[in-house]
Design a protein that fits this description.
Butyryl-Coa Dehydrogenase, subunit A, domain 1, binds flavin-adenine dinucleotide, alpha+beta, 18 helices, single chain
Length: 601
């Protein structure tokens, strides 16, 4: 077995053989890349993840973040690893050469990020929020703001964070109370409080740039009245040097069940009436501005979840081969056998394999759509890839995080009592992973987004774009010997999914409350459909490779394994989707009847 973070044979198969990153090299933006350079980047990222990030992950879990008098101190070991991350150019690899980036395809960027997340989520959270903050400034900032902040952010000298959540404004972003009062010089005085802000305070970087949502005094209530502000922790002078502190005070850090090396800060702005913010993206355009950051982050959080699930799977696989219990199935006596020999353990491992490999491929597919949306020459293609990114965002976020967490919990089960003990890494992975279904919009909010927005948007064109892609994989697989039957079965499930999606769309107008009560089951079904799509597409490639002949023995095993994985998922997991779709069709209305008073306590 290679590293226990990510099966790189499988990841390479997805990026090179199935999803063909090489398609991108024909475009000017990615013309400096080749399969060799992509491979080199994967190897370099693996070394950093395995040698620098992974060994300090459990140290961060034990040390946690210290808080004293407004300062948050990250685990000491994080500093050196972060420095190597920055020196390796990993803070902004996908950014343009103009800003010091490497114009790396998003596909490759995501794959490497998954390695880092699997190795040390807490440390990665600092860097990925920094990236989103930089992206907002790059896209929406004035030239002055870009020259003031961007180089420092992309080089990792400054960290970044996104400040939305307040005590009364969690999922309900429109309830934000933090105020912005216009100053004569065009800046704003910020006043308010936020909590749960990842990297809201830390000693990892020389400065922090808060991208903050607030309401300019007098602007309308709700999300429409929100604006976005750049609020540096330490003000930055025009020549780039650091000035006065900016009256952003960290009032404490949370003590969490996991992700303990990440500083989750409560913040007070303007207690001394001297917190200065710069408007970015236009007054009243805060949600549009912030949404750019949030959409990117939602896919990133999906990667975070599945990266940890993937590591949990590899740890469980390793353990299941080592741990011996019981005798061979059907025997009364004999030597103890590795637990991987037992049918229930094997099924657990196979479920983890299906979801971690299927969702990783889905995330890489979504990444390719991000790349194609940017480089595609004609507007119709841009629209198609944009639609696919839109509809895949909640599926990637929900699927990556729910299935990633399931894999962590299943891994604990495979470890038995050892899995419940702190010496074994899977226990930390499960605690760390849980947050991924909560932040960046809880998965309940993702489900609402899929049902209420994404499957209806632009006359259901995003939904249709997704269905077209899935149907083309099914159609091709129907012509492949050995896969035709599975493809036909999947086609039946997909037709039923299309039918139920239509029913739900209609019900949004007829009885929205009841329709939304199905949002999470519907999202979960969409995740399974997406996994089946990716696994069938992989099985098709694997079958062709085997047919071509000449594969090395290890590759033959690998390709056969891909075919078996798809076969299992379509035959054993997808039929359960039928039952769940039937339940939605039936539209039982107990949810309407069972009001609060019936939950008797
Ligand atoms: C470790 C950590 C790091 C975080 N980092 C950041 C950060 O960097 N920046 C930031 O701004 N925030 C951050 N958050 C906050 C996080 O985004 C919120 O916790 C999350 O959005 C949910 O808000 P809430 O906790 O107030 O829960 P609530 O909004 O109160 O939700 C509670 C439950 O109700 C459900 N619910 C609420 N409204 C609806 C609805 N309309 N429909 C269906 N279900 C609904 C939710 O799905 C959830 O299950 C972080 C939180 C944690 C714990």
């Amino acid at each position: 077995m290679g590293n226990k973070l990510m099966d790189l044979r499988d990841a390479r198969f997805a990026i090179f053989e199935q999803l063909k990153i090489s398609d991108l090299f024909a475009y000017e933006k990615f013309s400096d890349y080749s399969e060799d350079t992509v491979d080199l980047a994967i190897n370099t990222a693996e070394k950093l993840a395995v040698n620098e990030y992974y060994p300090i992950n459990s140290i961060g879990d034990k040390t946690g973040v210290a808080y004293s008098d407004g300062k948050a101190t990250v685990p000491a070991e994080f500093h050196a690893a972060y420095k190597k991350f920055c020196e390796g150019g990993w803070t902004a690899p996908a950014e343009s050469y103009d800003y010091g980036g490497q114009q790396m395809p998003t596909m490759l960027n995501y794959l490497t990020q998954m390695l880092f997340f699997a190795a040390n989520q807490s440390l990665m959270v600092y860097t990925c929020l920094t990236h989103s903050a930089g992206k907002v400034i790059e896209i929406f900032g004035t030239e002055e703001q870009k020259s003031k902040y961007l180089e420092a952010i992309w080089s990792g000298r400054y960290g970044g964070c996104m400040d939305l959540t307040e005590p009364e404004a969690g999922s309900d972003v429109g309830a934000i109370k933090t105020k912005a009062i216009p100053n004569p010089d065009g800046t704003y005085s910020i006043k308010g409080n936020k909590l749960f802000i990842s990297q809201g305070e830390s000693d990892l970087t020389e400065n922090l740039v808060h991208i903050l949502l607030a309401r300019v005094e007098g602007d309308p209530e709700g999300t429409k009245g929100l604006s976005c502000f750049i609020v540096p922790k330490i003000r930055v002078n025009d020549d780039g040097s650091l000035g006065e502190p900016n009256d952003v005070f960290c009032t404490g850090v949370e003590h969490k069940m996991g992700m303990k090396g990440s500083a989750t800060a409560s913040l007070a702005y303007g207690d001394n009436n001297s917190c200065i913010g710069e408007l970015i993206g236009g007054r009243g355009k805060g949600i549009v501005t912030m949404f750019h950051m949030m959409n990117e982050q939602r896919i990133v959080v999906g990667m975070e979840g599945i990266a940890m699930g993937s590591s949990a799977y590899l740890h469980a696989l390793d353990f299941a081969r080592e741990r011996k219990q019981g005798v061979a199935f059907g025997q009364r006596t004999g030597p103890q056998v590795p637990i991987i020999e037992h049918p229930d353990v094997r099924r657990n491992l196979l479920m983890m394999k299906c979801y971690t490999e299927g969702i990783r491929a889905l995330l890489l597919y979504a990444a390719k759509c991000v790349d194609m949306q940017e480089v595609a020459a004609d507007e119709a293609a841009k629209q198609k890839y944009g639609d696919l990114v839109e509809i895949l965002t909640p599926i990637c976020k929900g699927g990556g995080t729910d299935k990633g967490f399931d894999a962590c919990i299943t891994a604990i089960q495979v470890f038995g009592g050892y899995g419940y003990c702190q010496e074994y890494y899977v226990e930390q992975l499960a605690r760390d992973c849980k947050i991924t279904s909560i932040y960046e919009g809880t998965n309940g909010i993702q489900a609402n987004d899929l049902l209420g927005r994404k499957i209806v948007m632009r006359g259901a064109s995003a939904f249709q774009a997704l269905i077209d892609e899935i149907q083309s994989v099914i159609a091709a697989a129907k012509g492949i010997e050995g896969l035709a039957g599975y493809a036909a079965d999947f086609g039946v499930f997909l037709d039923k999914f299309i039918e139920t999606s239509g029913l739900l769309r209609a019900r949004l107008n007829e009885n929205g409350y009841l329709a939304y009560s199905w949002a999470t089951p519907y999202l979960s079904i969409a995740e399974d459909i997406a996994v089946a799509w990716m696994l069938l597409s992989q099985a098709a490639v694997a079958t062709e490779k085997l047919k071509a002949g000449g594969a090395l023995e290890a590759d033959v095993l690998f390709y056969e394994s891909k075919i078996k994985t798809a076969k299992f998922f379509i035959s054993s997991v997808l039929p359960q989707v039928m039952g769940r779709l039937d339940a939605i069709d039936k539209n039982d209305d107990t949810i309407l009847e069972i009001e609060d008073k019936y939950f008797i306590d």
